[in-house]
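thought: fold this chain, then report.
action: predict
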Amino acid sequence: MKINRTVSLLLLSLVCGLSVRDAQTQTPPVLAPCRVGQQAPGIGFWTWAANARVKVYIRAADFEPAQIPYLLTALQNWNDVSELTGSRVKFEYQGDAELELTCENCLTVMRGLVFDKAKRHATELKAYSFHHDQIINYAAIIIDPVLTNSKALRDAMAHELGHNLGLLDCYSCKPKSTLMNQFKVVNVPNDMAAPTSCDIAQVRQAYQELKVRVRASPPPRGSIDQGEEPVDDDTPIVIPKPQN
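observation:
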């Protein structure tokens, strides 16, 4: 019995040794990089603080009841990757709001006239920072009444939430590589309701950078510093005045 046990131990040791060597000699998979401007948006935009619990209110009177679930789908899609992005930001739906709210960590979703035919913008982010930096303290997503298709609403909401997490537009990016592409036709969904792997990677980088430095508030539309922001970014930016 002693001899058999010794042989068994030697065989087990040999098998384990071979398994370790095989694992060490395997070539790790090479992942395609997300190149900014090709598959990934730039970063450095408005950003909720890491670990923020953002209270989301929707001005329900502005939307058809059947449209609300589509807006909530976009919230959930970003919540689902909160850990992967490293932001740990959660968008928590609170219900109806009659007015645009300015409470800390509040995000109001509402209708408003923002449509730009020349640039095909139908949504807008209004963000305010107590310290005049890129950290959002409260914000509003404004959706033009021209945008009525439910799936297009969902995709536009997902796009604007990307802006809420530091992502810039990327009009030169390949289709389906990022939800920060521009809509080609208003009211035609682009079927990009959830962040792509490149979006997740860029948000992760944005929050890693946030640990090192916090940028100043992004400039208003029309005064983009082209040395800091991609040339093709012309996202409508509105900085509200402080409330009295």
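thought: worth noting. Residues 140 and 190 are 23 Å apart (CA to CA).
final: tokens above.
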